[in-house]
Amino acid sequence: MCGIAGIASFSEPISASYLDKMARSIAHRGPDDQGIHIASEILPNGCTYHVGLAHRRLSIIDLSSDGHQPMPNEDSTIWIVYNGEFYNFQDFDPSLKAKGHLYRSRTDTETIIHLYEEIGASCFEQMNGMWSLSIWDKRHNTLLLSRDRVGKKPLYYYADGNRFLFASEMKAILEDKTIPRSIDQVSLLNYITYGYITSPRTIFKDIYKLKPGHYIYLDLNHLDAFRRVKQIPYWKIPSSLDFDLSEEEAIRTLRDLLVDAVRLRLVSDAPLGAFLSGGIDSSIIVGIMSTLMERPVKTFSIGFAEKQYNETHYASIVARYYKTEHSEELVKPDALGLLPKLAWQYDEPFGDSSAVPTYYVSKLARKDVKVVLSGDGGDELFGGYIRYSYLKEFQGYDKIPSLLKKVCRTIATHLPDGLRGKWRIEQLGIDSNARYFNAISQISTKMMRQLVRNTSLEQFLPLKSPDFHACEGDGISSLMRYDMNHYLPDDILMKVDKASMLNSLEVRAPLLDYRIIELAARMPLAYKINAFGVRKYILKKAFRSMLPKELDIERKQGFAMPIKPWFKREMVNYIRHTILASESYCQSMFNRSAVANIVEQACSPNSIDYSPLIWNLLFFEHWCKRYIGTSE
Fold it and tell me: 119: domain range?
C-alpha cells in the first residue's frame, strides 16, 4: 500500500520542495521509498502546463527498487502513481507481453500502465482490487484519476481554475497554506448527524473526495480543464433483483467466489496475516486462509479491560480451532492521548470511536506483518446490522393510511418521554426512510434544531436529500444499498484505511470483491434476513460447517469501545473542560446552551446515552485545533 499526491498547473512551474512536503506529510502510508516526477509540456497553442507527481511506497509486491514510483511506461510517455492492489494483474501479463509491452518489474503497477495503453480508462472495469491512482498521459496531454469500486482507498482533490491538486490524504493538499479552509456547513451537519461526511463532500468547501467507482478525466489541452472537473462513474452496485439461483445454487456460488477472493488476496511478497475478532466474517476469512496456506495463519485481536466490552474469547476459540499463530492484547486505550493524533490522521471530523481499537489492532499486527485480511463488508452485504431487522419488523406499518400516520405523530409529540409505548406510536407515524434515518442518526431532528445555530440548514437534513430517496428495489434492500454507497466507504472503509495506514499496514477485504458485491446485491432479502429474522442467513449457512460449534456468533456485539462508562466516570472533567470552555470551537459553532445540556446529560450517571454525540464533539474540537486553529 502507498500514498500518492500530485499537481497540475497552468499558472506556474511546480515546486519540487512543495511536492516533497506533500509526500512527507503522508510518509506513514509508505515508509519504504519516496519518488517525485516533475515535467512541463508546451501545447500547440503555445501555452504550457506543468505536472508533478509524488509517491510514498509500502513495498508489498516486488520488494526491489524496480517497483519505484512514479513509474513510466517503456518510452516515458505515460506516468503513474498508484496506491492499492490489482489482485488479478497476472491474468493480463501474458497477453500484454505478447503485444510487445516490456516489463521492468513484477509489480501490478506496471500492468495497469500497459493495460491503460491498450484500452484507456476502460482498464478500471477489468481490475479486481482496491486503488486510488493517477495516470499522466503526455501523448494526449491528459490527467486521469480513479478510485476503486467501493472506496477502499481514499482520494481527495482541489481545483481553483489554474491548479489541480490531489492526494491520498487531505493533509498533503493542505501543505499549500493558500488553499482556503472554509468549513462547509452542509458537511458539518452531515457529520453531527452521522459521525462522518459523505462523498463527494469534505469538511472544507473547496476540497472534494473522488466517489467510489468513479474517475476524473482532465484534458490539459484546454485551459479551462480545472474549471469543469467532473466525476465519471465506471461501476455501480446492481439495483436489479432478478435473481434466478436457488438457495443451494446461491450458496455454492458464494462459497466459490469467496474462496477465490481470499486466494487472490494472498498474493504478497511481504509477511501476511488476518484480523480476527471472532465474529462470523473474520472467522470465515481465517478459515478459508487456513485451507489455502501452507503455514499457520498469523491472527491478531485486541480486547478491553472492561469485561462487558472484551470479546477476545470468541477470537481465541477460532484461533485454537484453526491452530493460528495468534497475537492478542488487552488494552486500556489512551483515548485522550490518541484524539489529537487521530484528528490529524483522519483529515476531517470523524466520529466513529471504533477508530481507536482499529488503530490498536493495526499497531499490534504491524509488529509481525505488512498485510492483513479482514472481514469488512459482511454486515452491509448480507444484512448483518440489527437496524435491518428493526426495519423489517416495522415494514407493515408503511401500509397505514397517511391520515392515521399524522394522528400518531401528533399523539407521540404530546406523550412524555420514557412512557411505555411511546416509541411504537412514533414508528406508526413515520415511513421506512424516517425509521432508517432514526436508526443511523446520532442525534434527533429536534436536538439538531437546538444544536445548529443556522436554522436554514434544516433543508439539508438527510431525509430531504434526493440521494436518500434514490434507492431502488424493496425498502430494506434499497436502504442496505444506501449503506453500501455511503456508510461503508465514508465510515467503515475510511476508518480502516486511516487507522491501518497510520501504522503502515495494508488491509485487504475479500468479502468486498466486486463479484461478491454484485451477487449479494441481486439476492432477495430473504436470503439475507430469513423469515425467522436470522441476519446474514445465507453467509452463515454457506460457511457454518467451517466454524467451531462452540462459537456463539449470535451473541457477539462487535468492535465497540467502552466510551459510555468512561464518559460517566474518569473523563467527566475532561469533557466539560474541552467542550464547554468559553474559547472552544464547539461553543462558537453550535448553540451554547444546547451543547451544555448535552454534556451535562452525557455525564450524569443515569441519563440517556449521548456518548456517540459527545465523542463527535470531542473529535471535532481536536480537529478544529489542528486544522482550523493553526496553519502550521
Answer: 2-233
